[in-house]
Fold this protein.
Amino acid sequence: MSLPKSRAEIRASQSRLKRAAVEQAMRSPFWQKRLPKLNLDRLEDEWRRIPILDKDTLRALTDQQFYSEFCVGGHDGIAEYWRSGGVTGQPLFYPRSFKDIQVGLESFARTFDCAGAGRGERAHVSFPLGIHPVGQIYSRCAASRGITVNWAGSGTSTPSALQLELIQRLKPTIWLGMSSYALHLANLAEVRGVEINSIKTIMTSAEPVSQAKRDKIERSFGAKLTDNFGMTEAGMMGCEDVPGAGFRIWTDLYHIEVLDPKTFEPVKEGETGTLVVTALQTNNVTPFLRWSSGDLVTYSEADDGAGPFSVFPRVKHAHRTAGFFKVRGVNLGHQDLEDFIFRHQEIGDFRAEAINDGGLDALRLCIECRKTVDQKAFVARLIVEVKEKFELQPEVVVLETGTLAREFEANIKAARFVDRR
């Protein structure tokens, strides 16, 4: 599946594929009840009459209703199931047809191209393997780009110490996994004196990557980090071509809209809105029309002509949906705190806890310091800086380096922020 050559080519294919997506959805009993009568010959004018599909609507369906009413029959067969991100409380397992998988493999493989990774390289995949599709699809699609793969999986399947041994022995040039696990591996490597400098490209997904976290990971590995964006309802949707600038979205495979979260009117380029996605080629069983993912993003045409991926627009996360602690009346944003902590090169890793031991609420920071740090002096300085920045005086606990990596290892995503009240 070759890349489109121009924006005009994408617009032409989108017009055709959007109509096909609606016609596919009209085969679904779920959509038959929800869709208004549409003039498909004037679909561009009619498009916004299609109701938004949100998480609450999907949550209201039972398993039986989802498979018998939402899903479409008469496709080319079920190849596998992809686990949803858990938006329904009890996650759904989305059927994927053989055609869906063919497109899915290509959408993932494009991220290797966009990251500048190619034939002859070796990849160490630390994404979870199994019912989460990311790890196994990445591992499978690498062959189409001539990339060797070690299917390591997350720390639950291959302990971190063994992962480091494999990195030392097999010397991969690409590492793929969640950004939090990249930090854990880097910290463990420092403790054990393990060299991981064969890795030149880090590819992450599934978690926000702030500039501070990016800088820390790149500094620890001595490698370039490329972040990627996808969702189970659609597939792998895009990749960074410029670090931190946002994701080039494969608009030949997915139609995207950025809308006001309250009115669902289109927002202007550069304004924050909610991301609404229609799968154009991975809809053979699950017809996701105008799916509101809950992501808050900004949209940019980014038509700079810089390389083959410049035919695609960019979407950048606003990171406004990040969680927070409320401690003594202060809203402490997780993203803000993470950025602040990771700007301190003295800190290897950390966990933040909201606590109450029977008195007032408090913030506890559990940190691991690098070997050469004067811990007593640094802790005193950190307490002052947190107080000045967030108007809260934290309790700081220094842990033995590697403690957090061992605690996090069994988790798919790191529990970096814990409310213990």
